[in-house]
# Entry
Amino acid sequence: MISELFTARLHLRSWRDSDRAPVAALNADPRVSEFLPTPLDAQASDAFLDRIECHWRENGFGLFAVEALDIAQFLGYIGLVVPAFVAPFTPCVEIGWRLAASHWGMGLATEGARAVMHHAFAALRLSEVLSWTVPANARSRRVMEKLVCPTIRPTILITQRCRPATPCGRMSYIAYAPRAGEPRLARRPQFRS
Ligand SMILES: CC(C)(COP(=O)(O)OP(=O)(O)OC[C@H]1O[C@@H](n2cnc3c(N)ncnc32)[C@H](O)[C@@H]1OP(=O)(O)O)[C@@H](O)C(=O)NCCC(=O)NCCS
# Structure
């Protein structure tokens, strides 16, 4: 199991108990939760972290804690999730991201997400990774767009009404796959029933 990745500026690593306070601060920030169902209080944030750790044990991959290499400061998370809910596009593996607002707009989410995509296709050998958000979340949609590159192609790009309900009742989502010549599917991800 690969539990850490490095990029030029980021260390994507496994979780530590000392992350609980900064994760709670991140999850309580209304800027960060603007397009998410609700900010999380400390108790809900701890439960969220417990689910992340459980997901790693069950699937062998998950959301990485993201740290800035130069200052060794916790910034948030980026990684892969098997969604627990049922939707037209599940079962699937989602790539997701959430970073501290103080570090937005520096290309960090895209940099970390590119490393996770490479990990998903080259190491985990997934055939497809999805990402979605509400249409109003322009920053997240822009990160999705920037992940398309010579080795990663979009396979679906849809805006549609879907459940679970989102603040505006719609979701944009994009699915990615490795281009021909890239590593092919070697095993299917394990999904919870
Ligand atoms: C989404 C998120 C991870 C992006 O992080 P980030 O490090 O700022 O992302 P990047 O810097 O890599 O890319 C952001 C892009 O959005 C663009 N952007 C920023 N504000 C924007 C706006 N209001 N409208 C359109 N584009 C915008 C930036 O210019 C940049 O694109 P560019 O590189 O072409 O200039 C961060 O905003 C976040 O944590 N948001 C809260 C949690 C969240 O919504 N997560 C996604 C849930 S689906």
